[in-house]
Amino acid sequence: MCEQLSVRADEPFALADLWEMARRLEQYGIAGFGWGASWVTADGGLATHRSTSAFRDDPEREAVGRETTTAALVHLRRPSKLSTVSLADTQPFADPAGRFAFSHNGELRDHRAHRPAYELQGRLHGRADSEVGARWLEDAWEASATSGRSPGALLAALHAAFGGPANFALLLPDGSSWHYAGNAENPVFGFRLGRFRVLSTAAYSIDRSFFRLVAPGARERRVVRDGEVAAL
Length: 232
Fold this sequence. Notes:
Elements: E1 3-14, H1 19-28, E2 35-40, E3 46-51, H2 61-65, E4 68-76, E5 93-94, E6 101-106, H3 111-120, H4 129-147, H5 151-162, E7 166-171, E8 177-180, E9 188-193, E10 196-201, H6 210-213, E11 219-224, E12 229-231
Antiparallel strand pairs: 1-4, 1-10, 2-3, 2-4, 5-6, 6-7, 7-8, 8-12, 9-10, 9-11
Helix pairs in contact: 3-4, 4-5
């Protein structure tokens, strides 16, 4: 039941410029069990903030909002299992090698089949299925360096490996963002809002109420079809 959005602009912006849309997405998406954001830094790296507080209640939100960037990924959490409300399970997940930030909305059906190997390696710190997917992606990313697979192709391969209804989002240090649509109950929309190019989940509303409640004024609206990848 999580929500996620990626935003990119040609000129630097303050993260706080996204906060009204994030607040609405948390409210109408019935999230509020933790949130996080990753963004591209001035030196070409990725920074991440995560909190188990709701976005609306996080005392660090104002300070994070003063950060400037040209691309960001925001994740608003509503876990399938409330027993997984912990910082270790809060997203986005930052790749230890700094290659990407990753988030997930939905359920990874076959995560239990992959979990034991990562537990033996000491690479799992939480209990949610999303972290297992992040570990798989880290390994696949390394293997893809020679195969030439795009980030979007890796997200499709992740869904094929785990199954279940799942949307994925990636942010790379070069500012590119990728969304994979694989959760029919929560479509992925692409649109422009002012100076921003945006990809976002739909607040679990397949009737496009998202554009009235979360992103009024959006233009160039489109749906990312099931099984497809969109990039910013």
